[in-house]
Amino acid sequence: MNISEQIRMNRKKIRSSQEDLAERVYVSRQTISSWENGKSYPDLQSLLLLSEIFSISLDELIKGDVEEMKEKVVSEKMKWGSYAMILFFVLMVSMMPFVKRVSAYFMVPLVIFALLMIASSLLVEREKKMHQVQTYEEILEFMEGRKMDPMDPVERKKRLRRETVYKVLGGLLVGGGSAALILWIF
Fold it and tell me: Where on the tree of life does the source sit, at the highest rank (predicted)?
């Protein structure tokens, strides 16, 4: 349950109107309405007052939002890490013709892009491991905020092995093929 639902539910539980609650928290009735509709979020002082008024712990008041925020931050890290990997791969591949035709000095940015691509992939892998999402299906469910169904451990291992082989072969094909094509064309 998120903070807006908690405020609305607890306000009704203590049989208080938005206006009465607003007076006790030292804000306007519109502010209470905004909190209950999820348009804004209470500041720390207001959260402490609400916790006291509702006779519940601060943790209980904001627990649902904290979990939602954690998932949002992690999925954002995975998303941006994935974008960074793709960007650095494209930049790395686009530098290859310059290395062959223009100068070997272009090898330095090529290596830097490769290292940044590896760093991005390690970030994504760390997030996947921390949240136990390894298969593509699990990653998609996690990124979309859906609840993951538990998988049989034996089936999970088989799927992970199969996907690892696909990743390695796909990476070799795409990376090697792109490099060979670019070097052959230029």
Answer: Bacteria
One domain for residues 51 and 80: no
Q: Report d(CA 129, CA 35) in Å as an integer.
A: 35
What is d(CA 180, CA 183) in angstroms, rounded to the nearest whole number? 5
Token code pair at residue 143: 């990124």
User: pTM of this prediction?
Assistant: 0.40
pLDDT in tens, 36-77: 988 888 888 888 889 889 888 877 777 655 455 556 556 677
CA pair distance 36, 48, nearest whole angstrom:
16
From the list 148, 154, 111, 108, the residue with the least C-alpha distance to 128 is 148
Q: What is the CATH number of the domain that holds 40?
A: 1.10.260.40
Pair 50, 99 in one domain: no
